[in-house]
Each structure stands twice: as C-alpha cells, then as structure tokens.
Design a protein that fits this description.
This protein is an alpha+beta fold and 114 residues long. It is 15% helix and 17% strand. The chain has three helices and four strands; from the N terminus they run βαββαβα. It has a two-stranded antiparallel sheet with strand order 1-4. Strands 2-3 form a two-stranded antiparallel ribbon. The protein binds iron/sulfur cluster (2 copies). The site of one iron/sulfur cluster has 13 residues, from α2.
Length: 114
C-alpha cells in the first residue's frame, strides 16, 4: 500500500497564519452540540453509584467534566452513561464512598449493559 505524504504547515508565525488556511476537522461547529454525540462508548471503566451512601452533596456534579451527573430537585438521580467517559474524577471527589469505578466489561454482566 502506498502512503500519501502529509504536508504540515508551520503555524508558529501567529501574525501570518489564518484558520481558513486549514481544512475543517475536529472543530466545534455550533455551541452546545456536544449533547448530540454519544461519547460514553469511549469508557473503559465506569462509575457505580451507591444511592444509599449518597448524601447529595453535589461534589461529583461540580467536578464532572462531562456534565454527566444527573440531578433533579437538588438531588443526584444517577449518571448519564451516554456521555460519561469514565474519567473517575467523581469517584475521587466523593467524600462519602458513594461512587466506585469498575471495569466496563464487569458492568455488562452485573447491570445488564446499561
Ligand atoms: S459526591 Fe458522592 S455523596 Fe456527593 S452527590 Fe456525588 S455521589 Fe453523592
Ligand atoms: S467518571 Fe468522569 S465523566 Fe463519568 S460521571 Fe464521573 S466525573 Fe463524570
């Protein structure tokens, strides 16, 4: 198989380069469109929530970079697994041991794959 040679453009000269010089790619075309992309499939580990242990302190909600902590009436109601990427920050931030990370394949057998 022949490989096409890539050409790279020097962008270190900030005074001369313009974004229009480049083909679009990896760009955000509309504000707030991340909800349209189901990124949960990137996860290799997933947080498991213990509702009994949860005090609804919302520390996990504050720190989740993907806005994946679901809340209703000021209480945590679950995790949005369509968008949670499994970073584990919520588990680190929870002071009440109400969250733990498990390998994603383990969740398929224990939770029916949700
Ligand atoms: S940080 Fe822990 S205790 Fe606080 S809302 Fe999240 S899961 Fe519940
Ligand atoms: S694992 Fe990361 S992305 Fe998923 S709910 Fe926790 S903080 Fe959010």
């Amino acid at each position: 198989m022949t490989q096409t040679a890539r050409t790279y453009q020097d962008v270190s000269d900030f005074d001369s380069w313009k974004s229009t010089d480049f083909l679009p790619g990896g760009i955000v075309t509309d504000a707030g469109n991340s909800m349209l992309y189901i990124t949960g499939g990137w996860r290799s580990d997933r947080p498991v929530w213990d509702e009994e242990a949860c005090t609804h302190c919302m520390l996990c909600w504050v720190h989740c970079p993907d806005s994946s902590i679901l809340v209703k009436d000021q209480k945590m109601t679950g995790i949005d697994f369509d968008h949670c990427k499994g970073c584990g920050i919520c588990v680190l931030e929870c002071r009440f041991k109400a969250l733990e990370m498990i390998p994603e394949p383990d969740s398929l057998s224990s939770e029916g794959g949700n």
